[in-house]
Write a sequence for this structure.
């Protein structure tokens, strides 16, 4: 339930708060007072498109805040989405939602004081609120919307069947498109495959290994400078470990370090400091001996073999040939080969593969046809129940002789959809099945059944829409329902019946209705009036709750435009009494 709504800086509303109650909340006011801004504010709060043109110049931003408290499955779903977004619900389970829109068009959303994407507000709105206005009546005229309405009424098991159908449909179309593409592009794909094979053959003959180019470069550099490296290593070795062939008696580093250590050892008993230094010289002598051993091994490994050097030149040239064609380095060449092998597998246009794909396509087509037939059966079963339920509601909305008929028929082939044979009939098939659904209205006995867009007036369409919502309310849906002047074009007894139906909806849902009909407003549990103030240079509007006396004055204004008329007030009080008796 939406407990409170505060709107600031939106349209004619400068700053106002709507304290909303459980049950039915009616919002009334003069034309142009800003009733529509309330619905616009609700749309913004629950992730609707922001329109900077509706933001007041002062203060330069519009802010809509709402406090939401939900129970049951919708409450659990909202709490999970809020937690997923990193926000927290309040201790009593309430959630504070905020949407801000600046005059420059920038928009921000907050949940529980934490900044979140606007999509989070939209997700919360799907669970919490359903808004119905005159645009929804027009949307209901579209066949796709009528099919969606029937599917919604059919229930959760039907939803699961539809989801399974959509999944198999996507698989079927993917395989079908792949097969058609391979058949259409056989020559082109074969040419691409030949080029990939040539590249793979060339790379395979060279057989590059990871990191090989760097290893070969380092080895070639050593062989090219073998003499210089040998001389440097030999001189260093002689300096460290001796072993000169010239008979030079110059002491080597290892011998000098050993002599120094022994000298210090002789006095270490006199001064412990010399003993410490002797130990460090022993470490240095060990390190020098290790270096000498490595230098000796290095000298043994040096090889100035011209044949080896020539092979290195040829191998590096072969690798450079690959890197010029396929990638910047050997690692890139190896990666190109991996991608080429994967792509080559995809380019298979062999008869065997085409036959296998065709068998898979036919198998999936059979599954789609079977599921589509099951969906059709489910729709036809639901259509009968749906039509009967809506017809009953229309009788209570001052259309006692009207009857709704829901027609489920095969979708004709030739509209661009793929075609399958379902129950012996060729049909166009989409992800939603193979049916066209149409709501038809028998306006009175003997009248032909006509599609809603042809057979229903504006007032009748409003009542059909409300009847459908009453039926939907019996099978679940969001806990808060918003009706924006769905009673347009209705008056008299029909208006009273609409008020009764909205009051009935309000027993299980919170209902917010923006109305210009006093017969509807009289049934509200809370009546809010949007009043316009034109006393200053800038027009503003505010919202106030009216109780019994003021409420009668507002209904009198709605009845005859005379809020101070004793006769009008008496008529309004009579209307309120009738509504109270009906609700009781």
């Amino acid at each position: 339930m939406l407990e409170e709504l505060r709107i600031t800086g939106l349209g004619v509303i400068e700053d106002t708060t709507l304290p909303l109650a459980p049950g039915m909340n009616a919002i009334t006011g003069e034309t142009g007072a800003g009733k529509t801004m309330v619905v616009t504010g609700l749309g913004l709060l629950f992730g609707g498109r922001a329109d900077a043109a509706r933001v007041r110049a002062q203060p330069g931003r519009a802010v809509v805040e709402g406090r939401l408290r939900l129970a049951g499955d919708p409450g659990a779903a909202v709490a999970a989405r809020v937690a997923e977004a990193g926000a927290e619900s309040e201790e009593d389970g309430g959630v504070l939602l905020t949407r801000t829109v600046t005059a420059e068009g920038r928009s921000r959303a907050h949940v529980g004081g934490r900044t979140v994407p606007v999509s989070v507000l939209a997700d919360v709105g799907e669970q919490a609120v359903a808004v119905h206005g005159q645009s929804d009546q027009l949307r209901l005229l579209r066949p796709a919307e009528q099919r969606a309405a029937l599917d919604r009424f059919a229930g959760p098991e039907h939803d699961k069947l539809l989801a399974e159908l959509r999944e198999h449909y996507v698989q079927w179309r993917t395989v079908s498109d792949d097969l058609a593409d391979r058949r259409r592009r056989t020559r082109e794909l074969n040419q691409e495959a030949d080029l990939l094979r040539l590249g793979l053959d060339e790379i395979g003959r060279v057989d590059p290994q990871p990191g090989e180019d760097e290893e070969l470069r380092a080895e070639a550099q050593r062989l090219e400078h073998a003499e210089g490296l040998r001389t440097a290593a030999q001189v260093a070795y002689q300096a460290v470990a001796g072993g000169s062939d010239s008979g030079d008696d110059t002491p080597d580093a290892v011998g000098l370090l050993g002599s120094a250590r022994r000298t210090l050892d002789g006095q270490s008993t006199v001064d412990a400091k010399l003993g410490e230094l002797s130990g460090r010289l022993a470490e240095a002598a060990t390190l020098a001996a290790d270096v000498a051993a490595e230098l000796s091994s290095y000298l043994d490994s040096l090889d100035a073999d011209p044949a080896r050097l020539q092979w290195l030149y040829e191998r590096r040239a072969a690798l450079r040939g690959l890197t010029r064609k396929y990638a910047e380095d050997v690692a890139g060449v190896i990666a190109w080969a991996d991608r080429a092998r994967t792509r080559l597998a995809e380019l298979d246009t062999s008869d065997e593969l085409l036959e296998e794909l065709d068998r898979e396509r036919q198998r999936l087509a059979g599954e789609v046809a079977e599921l589509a037939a099951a969906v059709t059966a489910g729709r036809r079963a639901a259509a009968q129940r749906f039509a009967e339920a809506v017809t009953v509601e229309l009788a209570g909305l001052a259309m006692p002789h009207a009857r709704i008929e829901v027609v489920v028929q095969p979708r004709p082939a030739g509209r661009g959809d793929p075609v399958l044979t379902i129950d012996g009939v060729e049909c166009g098939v989409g992800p939603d099945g193979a049916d066209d659904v149409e709501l038809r209205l028998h306006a009175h006995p003997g009248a032909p059944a006509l599609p809603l867009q042809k057979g229903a007036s504006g007032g009748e369409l409003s009542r059909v829409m409300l009847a459908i919502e009453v039926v939907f309310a019996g099978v679940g849906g969001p806990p808060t329902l918003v009706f924006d002047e769905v009673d347009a074009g209705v008056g008299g007894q029909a208006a009273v019946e609409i008020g009764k139906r909205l009051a009935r909806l309000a027993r299980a849902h919170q209902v917010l209705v923006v109305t210009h009909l006093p017969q509807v407003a009289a049934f509200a549990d809370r009546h809010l009036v949007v009043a316009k103030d034109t006393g200053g240079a800038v027009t503003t509007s505010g919202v106030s709750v009216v109780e019994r006396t003021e409420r009668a004055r507002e209904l009198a204004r709605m009845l005859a435009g005379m809020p101070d008329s004793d006769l009008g007030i008496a008529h309004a009080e009579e209307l309120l009494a009738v509504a109270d008796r009906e609700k009781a």
About this structure: The two ends are 23 Å apart (CA to CA). The chain has a mean pLDDT of 84. The first helix runs from residue 35 to 45. Residues 213 and 404 are 79 Å apart (CA to CA).
